[in-house]
Design goal:
The chain is α/β, with parallel strands linked by helices. The protein folds into 2 domains: about 1-205, TIM Barrel; about 225-335, Lyase, Ornithine Decarboxylase, Chain A, domain 1. The protein has 11 helices and 16 strands. It has an 8-stranded parallel barrel, surrounded by 5 helices. The mean pLDDT is about 95. The structure holds pyridoxal-5'-phosphate (PLP). Pyridoxal-5'-phosphate binds near residues 66 and 198.
């Protein structure tokens, strides 16, 4: 994770970095990020309990709450842990206006430049900015937006259109700005912004179609298991629920202790790659709750106890995700609590 952070920082050397650690650091565990992301200038997430935990773990630099407060009661946490809320809705302005605080907050005004999820319309920005600036509960106001298509050329709204809208909305406002996610950090490093907000790339996931390895990123997570049984199929035999895979010849298969209850995608079907003792083979038939089936044809020596890599070192998570019709982000975030974690620096 440190090496991937270095890739992000060197892509945009002039910018400071919010390392995005939402969703329990994309499934990697919030406990490790204060050390792994020591070189970041701030951490950014949405969960209040995890933000408090970051302070307990000794993180003293800024923390951004990317959805801000959900109700007035959250303001107490913001003040106690000195968290910097994103303000994306006028209700949040009203909460700040009606709540006296013992220590003023740094806030981030979010602008909707075309993503159309969160943020104020460009025409509202200068009024909201002045309104926040005038509050005694606010010590600084930064400006931010989020790109919808930084990973794909030609899809609208494109980055240029969003930047244009952002610049028009914020002309004349003297504030720090934060724009780029991983895709923009890697593919649009010329964007001028005081802060970048990379997430998935820090964990070695690809933010677009280009492979993570070709972008210089290393997987932070390797999901492993073992073969716990083998079977010999004859032509016409099937394996698993629904008998989706039917052997067309005699073959040896392995049963691996990993299923959708561990976070392996049930939609991965026959042909999804998997490594046994470092050799690439394929899964067969339907993934079940606690097990999946693999082809041992290329591995005559593999047996009960053989080590299996579901994704990570040697097998990009994005490749497995593509076979299941999803993205590496979702697989990372979905690793189940029952999977034992081992952390290496
Ligand atoms: C999740 C998120 C990011 C990080 O996105 P990646 O694609 O993982 O780099 C940045 N900014 C905001 C507002 C986000 O919600």
């Amino acid at each position: 994770m440190q090496g991937n952070l270095a890739v992000a920082k060197s892509a945009v050397p002039a910018a400071k970095t919010w390392a995005v650690v939402k969703a329990d650091a994309y499934g990697h565990g919030i406990e490790h990020v204060t050390r792994a992301f020591q070189a970041a200038d701030g951490l950014s997430l949405i969960e209040f309990d995890r933000a408090a935990r970051l302070r307990e773990l000794g993180w003293q630099k800024p923390i951004m709450m990317m959805q801000g407060m959900y109700d007035v009661a959250d303001i107490e946490s913001l003040v106690r842990d000195d968290l910097q809320p994103v303000i994306h809705h006028v209700d949040q302005c009203r909460m700040l206006e009606s709540t006296p605080v013992s220590r003023p907050l740094a806030v981030h005004l979010k602008i909707n430049t075309g993503m159309n999820r969160l943020g104020f319309m460009p025409s509202q920005v200068s009024e909201i900015y002045q309104r926040l600036k005038s509050l005694s509960s606010v010590r600084s106001v930064s400006l931010m937006t989020h790109f919808a298509n930084a990973d794909s050329n030609g899809t609208r709204p494109d980055v240029a259109a969003q930047i244009d809208a952002f610049q028009r909305a914020t002309a004349g406002l003297d504030a720090e700005i934060s724009l780029s996610n991983s895709a923009a950090t890697l593919f649009q490093p010329q964007i001028r912004s005081d802060w970048i907000r990379p997430g998935v790339m820090l964990y070695g996931g690809a933010p677009g179609v280009q492979s993570a390895l070709s972008l210089g990123l290393q997987p932070a997570m390797t999901l492993k298991s073992r073969v716990i049984a083998t079977q010999s199929l004859r032509a016409g035999d099937s394996v698993g629920y629904g008998s989706l895979f039917i052997a067309d010849r005699s073959m040896r298969i392995g049963i691996v202790a990993c299923g959708y209850a561990d976070g392996y995608p049930r939609l991965a079907s026959t042909g999804t790659p998997i490594l046994i003792d470092g050799v690439r083979t394929r899964i067969l038939g339907r993934v079940s709750m606690d097990m999946l089936n693999i082809d041992l044809s290329p591995l005559p020596t593999a047996d009960v106890g053989s080590e299996v890599t579901l994704w990570g070192q040697g097998l990009p998570i994005d490749e497995v995700a593509a076979h299941a019709g999803t993205i590496g982000y979702e697989l990372m975030c979905g690793v189940a609590p029952r999977v034992r974690r081992e952390v290496r620096d």
